[in-house]
Amino acid sequence: MLGIAAIILICAALLIVYPDITNENTNNSNQTVIVGNTNTTNTNATVVNQEITDTNSSNQTNTGSTNSNQVVVVNQDNTNQTSTNTNQTATNTNQQVTIAEAKTIDDLAVQLTLKQTGYCEALAPADWSFVSNAEATGTDLFSPDQSQHAGWGISAVYTYMYPDVDSFLTTWLGYAFTGSFDTGNITLGSSQELYEGFIQRDFTTSTSRKGVAIYKTYNFADPTMYVVSMYMADTTNDLWSTNGAIPFSVAISIRCVSQLRPTTSSVDVSTSDPSDSSDNPEISLSDKWSEAILGYENVYSPTTGEHYEAPLTSQWDTGPEGSGYYRSLPGGGYEKLERGFGNY
Fold it and tell me: Which of 13, 308, 317, 340 could make an SS bond with 109 (beta carbons 3.0 to 4.6 A apart)?
């Protein structure tokens, strides 16, 4: 497949310049914390019987030490007086402390690392490549075998060529995946409105790939043109249901600066910050994303900033700080992770 960085330039008839691909490796460590059991020792307390005998001929009352459970028996023949203390026994109680098994994301989540190239940055697995064109109009991220892909592109579109967004998307995506402008190569699903003008569409291709596109349209005073900014994620057909969450999350995390957006037409691409809303108003796509993606959720450490794609099944419902996602700490204990993409 050609990728967005290439096809967006073909649509705009611009020269494609690819920077070197940089791979970053991050070593994850597994940690196991052993939780011990605590037993409480039961004690028995017995108050020894006391028997006090008084041989005085007259009735006397025992004035010894007071016992809260004391029974006094007095002989009526004025010969003997016996004071008997009842036995006191402290009842044993067995206390059993049950410690719930810890549940962390340690061995289940996929760690995402911060990657940067040119005017863009994104969160992706360490072994993914990251390329962009020199014109600040497109970027692509690929897994090593290219079975998984995420990308972003932005293009000015003339209405006389593509009167609506659907006609543009089917042509653009079709060429990206097949190298042909045949619109029959792409099948678009129904539209789903997200927020701040973003729209989501599922798609399938004639080359056995499926994925999702999220795009936003900008209109100008000039009715003869409009601008489309699109994020996309895809895998081979057999991987989408099990692995699609990874490229989907990577696509949402992409942040790029461009002069084609109306509010950033004068931005200096070389010195701008892709995560600054004044340079890139579309950071709201990842900032506000809160939905689970194909059985996974993006979470991050509030102390290290490390990001993870965690399966929903790794959530610890009875965690030490309440329900949520946790990771093991090097020195012992656990850290509760924050949901979302945060401010990376």
Answer: 308
